[in-house]
Amino acid sequence: MTPHWLHAAEGRLPVEGEMPGFDGATGWLNSPPLTAEITRGKVVLVNFWTYTCINWLRQLPYVRAWADKYTDQGLLVVGVHTPEFGFEQDVENVRREARGDRVDYPVALDNDYAIWRAFDNHYWPAIYLADTEGLIRYHHFGEDEYARTEMAIQRLLGDARSDVVTVKPRPIEEPGDYRTLRSPENYTGYARSEQFRSPEGIAAERSQQYTVPDHLGLNDWALDGRWTIGEQATTSDAAGGRIVNRFHARDLNLVMGAAQPVRFQLLLDGKPPAGAHGDDIDADGYGTIGDRRLYQLVRQPGHIADRTAEITFLDPGAETYSFTFG
């Protein structure tokens, strides 16, 4: 079978079915509700996202650039925000992050997953392209294939130009280093957590004193201090709570937040991160969390090896959700 991207490159985009509408949206940002009458006659790019997703953040510079470049030629970019975590259902949280991420195109809020189900979608991020007749002609799941996706946009717009966009991503939007990546995403809530190694085990939905074992293998994690492990979030119940993760990746990110500002410090193999600090901490490892979002904690220069990240929350109330890497 010829890959769909090759059809795009040759100008032959297969018909994949009719594009569902956006009737299931629970709200809209940057636009009134988009009806079939409004979308008719336009090439429509539908981008499924949720604002804490590191893979979507890496894709975002291209989606922004396509909206900027092709809107006047008849492209309509529509973001569909389908939340992964409960706090991502809050419209003010989505509005704040969309503003910070410069998501200026229309966004359908999909808190009930109605649009997700209508598209039979299973991924963040996902891109679907529909032609002016409302037929889906191309899709792509995950990162990469940016040039091929843009070529499909050009074909549907009847644009013969061969140039593709060049983007200038923010640090959090830069591609991961997949050559060295050996750590998968992991959640701290009990519903989907893996490789939790505190010897006390998970005491779901109740405050528990935890300890860190003497040894952590690659991709193991543990807690120290008093914490409550919930379905989605693991929350520090006292000042000084630690979360420890053994990982192998250039980047370490953590989705977290708090009702009130919480100070923290990250140590890398027992030392301040210095030049390996991420965008949300300083060289001594200090940072503060508040808004529930993805925080970039580590970006290592040079050689990548197994490292141990130890995060100590200096105030109670820190909520942690998931580790991601790059």
UniProtKB/TrEMBL annotation:
Pfam families: AhpC-TSA, Thioredoxin_10. SUPFAM superfamilies: Thioredoxin-like. Residues 8-158 form the Thioredoxin domain. It comes from the Bacteria. PROSITE patterns: THIOREDOXIN_2. InterPro entries: AhpC/TSA, Thioredoxin-like_sf, Thioredoxin_10, Thioredoxin_domain, Thioredoxin_ResA/DsbE_sf. Signal peptide: none annotated. PANTHER family: PROTEIN DIPZ, THIOL:DISULFIDE INTERCHANGE PROTEIN DSBE. This is Redoxin domain-containing protein.
